[in-house]
Amino acid sequence: MNLDSKIAIVTGASSGIGAEFSKMLVENGTEVYGLARSEGKLQGLQQKLGDKFHPVKMDITKSEDLEKWVQKTFSRNHRPDILINNAGVMYSANVDDLTKDEWHTMIDVNLNGIFYLTRLIVPLMKENEQVCHIINIASIAGLLGNPTISGYNASKFAVRGFSEALFKELRYDGIKVTCVFPGSINTDLFDKIDGIENHPNMMKTTDVSDTVKFLLQTDENHLINEITMRPLNPKDPTS
Ligand SMILES: NC(=O)c1ccc[n+]([C@@H]2O[C@H](COP(=O)([O-])OP(=O)(O)OC[C@H]3O[C@@H](n4cnc5c(N)ncnc54)[C@H](OP(=O)(O)O)[C@@H]3O)[C@@H](O)[C@H]2O)c1
Q1: Is the CB of residue 15 below 6 angstroms from any atom belonging to ligand 1?
Q2: How many C-beta atoms surround the C-beta of residue 66 within 10 A?
Q3: Does the pLDDT at position 192 exceed 90?
Q4: Which residues pair with 54 in a beta bridge?
Q5: pLDDT per position as a tens digit, 73-97
Q6: Is 91 considered catalytic here?
Q7: pTM higher than 0.90 for the full model?
Q8: What is the pLDDT of residue 133?
């Protein structure tokens, strides 16, 4: 896909890799609708990226709000070409300490939110004569289970299943679906997690956005449906 003059939706655009995807897309000529709850951060990003970035204050767990927004934003003459389902949250605790609220929040944001938005965007993409692309950001935690992140694992394993079914379902409609499995990235995701400190050996947000740019720019009939990426040496160099 040539990214120039395309239309993209990026969830979780207010920080981390979502903000980096938005920057990469705008720099390549794409108009970006960036969704997140933090309006101030989205507006700050718009000041940096300019008018091609549209800040959209949205909680992706609110399906009715998403429906209203999609209906008023898109039409036959203004259809999304790219959807990056990126918003996510992580809580870490032994299963007997993980609260029901933490469990439900991870399932709601990391899984249900992807379904709520994707089901609204797919019909618009099916009508689009150009090849479209849905990219779902899972995690290495969608491939490997580990102690203290059972809820996060459950939500991200589900993203993998959803993505695989979707790629097989939508390929003949000219819609690519890719599931991305990153290892640790230097973002705010771990702010609430005891025992995980950010460090310089985590991947940079640009490492992930460079890969997503490559995925989007593949030839029309070339689909990379899954991709895994990690720091070569994941250990904290200061410890
Ligand atoms: N960092 C890593 O090591 C790593 C590794 C593998 C995968 N990932 C995945 O990468 C994705 C992005 O995470 P990140 O590392 O960039 O962390 P981040 O900086 O914490 O970004 C998370 C984003 O999700 C948004 N978000 C959370 N709840 C939301 C909701 N209910 N509605 C709309 N947006 C919501 C946040 O915005 P608001 O708070 O403003 O709503 C924020 O923009 C996540 O899916 C994460 O699981 C991260």
Answers
A1: yes
A2: 22
A3: no
A4: 33
A5: 999 899 999 999 999 999 999 999 9
A6: no
A7: yes
A8: 98
Rounded distance from Cα 62 to ligand 1 centre (Å): 16
Ligand 1 touching residue 16 (CB < 6 A): yes
- At 156, which CATH number? 3.40.50.720
Query: How far is 44 from 41, CA to CA, in rounded Å?
Result: 5
> Between the CA of residue 145 and those of 139, 151, 152, what are the distances in Å?
11, 10, 9
Quick one: what percent of the chain has pLDDT higher than 90? 94
% of the chain at pLDDT higher than 70: 100
Residue ID of nearest Cα to ligand 1 atom 31: 59
Total domains, the chain: 1
The answer to the question of residue 235 being in a domain is no
Q: Which amino acid is at 164?
A: E
Q: Nearest C-alpha to atom 30 of ligand 1 is from which residue? A: 59
Query: Which atom belonging to ligand 1 lies closest to the Cα atom of 42?
Result: 40
Say which of 33, 91, 152, 172 is annotated catalytic.
152
Does residue 133 contact residue 3 with C-beta atoms inside 8 Å? Answer: no
Residue with tokens 């939500």: 155
In-domain check, residue 238: no
Q: How confident is the model at residue 211 (pLDDT cuts 50, 70, 90)?
A: very high
Q: What is the pLDDT of residues 31-46, one digit of tens each?
A: 999 999 999 999 999 9
pLDDT at 156 over 80: yes
Q: Is 86 in the pocket of ligand 1 (CB under 6 A)?
A: yes
1 within a domain of the structure (yes/no):
no
Query: Residue 158 belongs to what domain range?
Result: 7-229
Q: Domain for residue 2, yes or no?
A: no
Cβ of 123: how many Cβ atoms within 10 Å? 13
Q: Determine the distance separating the centroid of ligand 1 and the alpha carbon of 87, expressed in angstroms.
A: 4
